Amino acid sequence: MWASPFVRLVKLTLEIKGIQYEYVEEDLVNKSLVLHKYNPVHKKVPVLVVNGKPLVESLIILEYIDETWKNSPRFLPENPYKKAQLRFWCSFVHEQVFETMMLVLTSNGEEEEKAVKEFFERISTLEVEIKNIFPEGIQVIDQKNVGLLDVCF
Ligand SMILES: N[C@@H](CCC(=O)N[C@@H](CS)C(=O)NCC(=O)O)C(=O)O
Question: Where in this chain does the entry annotate a coiled-coil region (predicted)?
């Protein structure tokens, strides 16, 4: 499912970390037996298979990759409080921001206007709160200096 933002999130992470992988496309209208086998609960993509073992849910996959391939860049800080804060904002982007973004793209008229307003409200919330997580200011992002929240965003 080439257009899946969740799949792209995992591909982007693998590419930033320099990990070679084989990409297998899934037809979500006609799901394969492999998808049923590797993600029997949700039957969704992405699924990352490492040494025959499947991992599902993009944010969980991202953390797994970061903890397994400890090469730079590290996506999450060691500090448990900072880590918890970043996890919270990643799931906010992943769920709340993404949900309204999809609504903007798929609605019309009044519903679209409402969705656009909601989208900007959520982005503004993130923009204000992010300053508490990064009091030192937003830094330039490049391949060596990128965090979990950057990737999610
Ligand atoms: N929370 C999941 C969402 C994954 C997801 O919704 N994948 C969609 C493609 S964008 C899917 O596989 N949909 C198939 C279905 O719902 O049957 C994640 O972050 O990995």
Answer: none
